[in-house]
Design a protein that fits this description.
The structure is a homodimer. Chain A is mainly α. In chain A, a hairpin with a 3-residue loop joins strand 2 and strand 3. The first copy, chain A, folds into 2 domains: 17-79, Orthogonal Bundle (Arc Repressor Mutant, subunit A); 84-228, GntR ligand-binding domain-like (Four Helix Bundle (Hemerythrin (Met), subunit A)), CATH 1.20.120. Chain A has helices spanning 17-31, 42-48, 53-65, 84-108, 111-129, 133-150, 154-167, 178-196, 200-224, and strands at residues 39-40, 69-72, 76-79. At the A-B interface, helix 3, helix 4 and helix 7 of A face helix 3, helix 4 and helix 7 of B. Chain A binds a DNA duplex through residues 16-18, 41-43, 51-55, 57-58, 73-76. Chains A, B: Residues 15-82 form the HTH gntR-type domain.
Chain lengths: 230, 230
DNA sequence: GAAGAAATATTTGTATACTTAGTAATTTCA
DNA sequence: TGAAATTACTAAGTATACAAATATTTCTTC
């Protein structure tokens, strides 16, 4: 064995080109960089990534399956554009799934996990005081993800995460206005209390309400600002 | 204009080659024709359908997204092979989703839809008497689908249908034994009663139990017959 | 004969080329 | 001038070709 024994090839990316493109496009869509309804030209995306159409097509197919774009045969792909009804349905289901998650998580979380959640809640308090919407949004996401993880059900974690991603493009109006930030924080506090009290049914009920409020906020906003419907 | 004016081109299929292959493979997998764990060779599938690898690859990507196959970069695709734990998690989530569906459906179904459900239930009774497992299974599926549709939430319908499809390859031991058929039938009857009584909470509770029993039946069977784990 | 290394074969990932369908533009005829 | 039809063009679907990585086999060495 020499000193120069074969090193790990520093595999630049354990990912395939197609999957990188998929992740990148997914980010663009969920962040709103590519607006709902936008037609996606395969050639254009290919050039942007310096690749051929093949991996782009595969990426688009995967995005279609996960619900971020729609593909019509011979007519290409476009970022999903949902009706208000449909978005309402998604929030409704999301509310139920989140309720399920918190109910199960309340029964299964470890002490450590509960305190991690509590810690996140404390952090978000600072963001409320600072009126830092972006940071609050990020911490909010972590808060929910931590609850998903608390179910210890990999399948449920995946399902909930996927749904959250699908709704993402339509949540951007969420925290418009500082008062909404505070309300969200207080709702979290109530949920957290139930979790620590190991009252799973109450936690679930509160979570369902919390999510339905978010849905209502969105749909009302979208209704009042139809031109900015994204 | 002559008599031979251009006829509708009898568009053989409004589908693309890739989507046909996808549907076909999905059937093969859910029906068990291709067993879990089977490695899928792109070239082989391409030849089977008389096509090139390109549409086959796209089909496999979509199947991966919907959870029927797993793809590892550079190592190809294989039919999902799940651990018992994972299957248990899926049944657990499925039970919750189905409970959600029946709760919402109980509140929203039209009179016509309720009677369609009742009709299906009557049909399944015949299959119980005939001990016709395959037919019962088909009617059972329709029964559940009718409940999904009763939610009038296209999003929820899609979600539930997708989950059902994902579990399909692992449900085949479901109705082994006539007594299980009868039990299933009677559980349906109780659910149906609650729906007609518009008691959505009870319907949900019964449905959850109904699905959890199915999951327990499977996992017990799989545990007792590990070699036939499919 | 077994273990490891080199060579070969197979298979996936990507690029390019070609075919076909859909759309837009232009032309022709009423 | 307006509508229908033809043509041209664009973009998606599919096939083929090539490159890169993994799997397999063979060969060498102990």
């Amino acid at each position: 064995m020499t000193v120069t024994e074969k090193m790990e090839p520093i595999r630049v990316a354990n990912e395939t080109l197609a999957s990188q493109i998929r992740n990148c496009l997914a980010d663009d869509i969920t962040s709103g960089a590519i607006a709902p309804g936008t037609q996606i030209d395969e050639q254009e995306v290919a050039e942007r990534f310096g690749a051929s159409r093949t991996p782009v097509r595969e990426a688009l197919r995967e995005l279609a399956s996960s619900g971020l774009v729609t593909i019509e045969p011979r007519r290409g792909a476009r970022v999903v554009e949902l009706t208000l009804d449909r978005i309402g349905e998604m929030f409704e289901v999301m509310a139920e799934i989140e309720a399920m998650c918190v109910r199960i998580a309340t029964e299964r979380m470890t002490t450590l996990e509960r305190y991690q959640l509590h810690h996140l809640h404390n952090i978000s308090h600072k963001h409320v005081l600072d009126e830092n919407i972006d940071e609050y949004d990020a911490t909010n996401k972590q808060f929910h993800t931590t609850i998903y993880n608390g179910t210890h059900s990999s399948f449920l974690i995946e399902l909930a995460s996927n749904l959250r991603q699908r709704i993402a493009p339509f949540r951007r109006a969420q925290f418009r206005g500082i008062q909404r930030l505070l309300i969200s924080y207080e709702e979290h506090a109530a949920i957290l209390n139930s979790i620590f009290a190991k009252d799973s049914d109450t936690a679930a009920k509160l979570m369902r309400a919390h999510m339905l409020v978010a849905g209502a906020v969105y749909t009302r906003y979208a209704y009042e600002h139809p031109s900015r419907l994204e």
